[in-house]
Each structure stands twice: as structure tokens, then as C-alpha cells.
Here is the input.
Amino acid sequence: MSDSEGGGLVQEPLKNKLRRLQQAKCIMDDDIVSNNAVTQSLQKELGRLQTESYQLERSHQEKQELCQKLQFQCKESERESVRLAEEIKKREELLAQLRCEIQDLKLRQRKQRMEFENHLHQLMEQHKKLYFVIVSQLQHLLPIPR
Here is the structure.
């Protein structure tokens, strides 16, 4: 065998190996391109999810603040309601007391009016009697011409 023939035999396995390596490199390059596309897609999805997460956290925070504000307002309303109920109760008690006082005053006035009317009636009766006494005395004293 000659050197050129022997060298050709050694180069053949190297060429085959080189071809396999080049094919493997092409496959790996395709895989890298595919992986890069998947990575970019995943990066976009991650960005979208991060944005959505931020928006949801912000919305949650706003709703929590609103909830706290509403709870505070609810407690304030309850306190105000209790205060107004107490105020209404006091006013109703005062109103009942005033009604009793008015009723008592009306009864006293009615009693006074009845006493006055009785006294007036007595005076009128006394006046009548006195009038008849005076008229009868005058009739005895002054003869009536006939």
C-alpha cells in the first residue's frame, strides 16, 4: 500500500467523523434556534404574567384599602346609629314626660275652671237671693199705687 492510499484510508474515517460532527452541529444549531424561539416565547409569557401579577397585586391592594375604608365607615355608621338610638330614646322619654305634664296641667285647669264655675254659680245664686230679698223689702217699703 502506498502512502497516498494509506493516507486516504486514515482520512476517510476522519471525514466521516467530521460529517457526523457537522450534522450533529446542524442539529444542535437547529435545537439552539428552536430553544431560542421557545426562550423568547417564554420570556414574553413571563413578562405578560409579571405584568398581570403586578396589576392583580395592585388591584388587590386597592380592594384591601377600599375594604378597610368601608369597614371603618361601617363601624362609624354603627356608632352613629347607636348614638342616634340613644338620642331618640332620651327624646321619647322627655316627650312622654312633657305629655304627662301637659295632661296634669289640663286636669288642674279643668279643676280650676270647674271650681270657678261653681263659685260663679254660687255667687249668681247669692245675687239672685239678695235681689229677691231687696226687691221684696223694697216692695214692703214702697207701696205700689193701684
In short: The helical segments are 3-141. The two ends are 205 Å apart (CA to CA). Residues 3-141 form the longest helix (139 residues). The mean pLDDT is 91.
